[in-house]
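Tip: read the tokens left to right.
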């Protein structure tokens, strides 16, 4: 479905002159009033401001996407407000640009997927400077809607790995020694890193868990009383091999790796069944991103 199909001309407010962000929200909520059913518009505004304080969605360049999942809303509601002069950001936010475009999104309580996908579509739309400028300067709701139609931006139906993934900032080469791997993990603050060859192909994962396991006796699982471990030098096995054993020799090749089109349910299933905190996103065996368990909580469950 195209993004333009979700918006009605009656829900587009051109050249808003609101003195505050809260006033602008109230005007947008009022424009979609007939779609709110028995919901109190003031309480809807209050909820929007609460969510905004908890989790601001601001793609930048003077764009804000206030949103809320509400019981009582029967379908996705989308509204757009534009302001050439700009609306001051909410109190307590220092150094932020004035707001020129506000996309309001309301959905039923259970429809986090459609909300996330609509947000992603709006982010793609406003990432193009030409689209932003055209929307801000447009003279009529009909023209604003036409700009959205001409952009061709679509809203996907499901959340996939590509929607959740983060860029990979740090990788481990297979020829790095354990000492070098430890330094890399400590330096980046991650619990694990992808092992990638010279051609960018993902070989697997190496984690703090793997490193600790290397340092413990192989018969660790047979020890019923951990107190006896005090008789051993701590992590002696690790120190003996930290300069000779390489990442390529201990890499976990079973780490989840999935194409960007993989639905979020499958991503979550892979993580949980394999006991992993990360799933790597690959295209043609090359690493393009990573999804953490916390990304699913933050971007899907927390909306």
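Filled-in amino acids:
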């Amino acid at each position: 479905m195209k993004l333009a199909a979700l918006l009605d001309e009656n829900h587009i407010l051109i050249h808003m002159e609101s003195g505050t962000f809260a006033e602008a929200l109230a005007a947008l909520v009022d424009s979609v009033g007939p779609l709110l059913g028995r919901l109190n518009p003031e309480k809807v505004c209050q909820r929007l401001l609460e969510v905004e304080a908890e989790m601001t969605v601001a793609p930048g360049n003077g764009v804000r996407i206030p949103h809320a999942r509400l019981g009582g809303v029967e379908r996705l509601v989308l509204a757009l407000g534009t302001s050439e002069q700009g609306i001051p950001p909410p109190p307590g936010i220092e150094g932020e640009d004035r707001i020129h475009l506000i996309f309001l999104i309301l959905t039923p309580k259970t429809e986090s997927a459609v909300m996330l996908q609509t947000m992603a579509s709006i982010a793609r739309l406003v990432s193009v400077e030409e689209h932003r400028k055209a929307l801000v300067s447009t003279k009529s709701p009909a023209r604003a809607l036409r700009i959205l139609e001409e952009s061709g931006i679509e809203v996907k139906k499901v959340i996939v790995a590509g929607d959740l993934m983060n860029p990979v900032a740090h990788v481990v080469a297979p020829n790095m020694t354990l000492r070098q791997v430890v330094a890399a993990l400590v330096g980046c603050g991650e619990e694990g890193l992808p092992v990638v060859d010279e051609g960018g192909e993902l070989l697997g994962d190496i984690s703090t868990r793997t490193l600790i396991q290397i340092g413990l006796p192989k018969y660790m699982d047979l020890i019923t009383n951990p107190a006896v471990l005090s008789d051993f030098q701590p992590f002696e096995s690790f120190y003996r091999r930290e300069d000779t054993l390489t990442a390529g020799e201990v890499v976990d090749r079973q780490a989840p790796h999935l194409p960007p089109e993989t639905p979020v349910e499958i991503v979550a299933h892979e993580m949980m069944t394999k006991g992993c905190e990360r799933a790597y996103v690959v295209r043609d065996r090359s690493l393009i991103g990573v999804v953490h368990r916390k990304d699913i909580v933050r971007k899907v469950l927390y909306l």
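Residues 22 and 49 are 8 Å apart (CA to CA). The beta strands are 12-13, 63-64, 67-70, 77-87, 99-108, 192-196, 202-207, 257-258, 278-283, 286-292.
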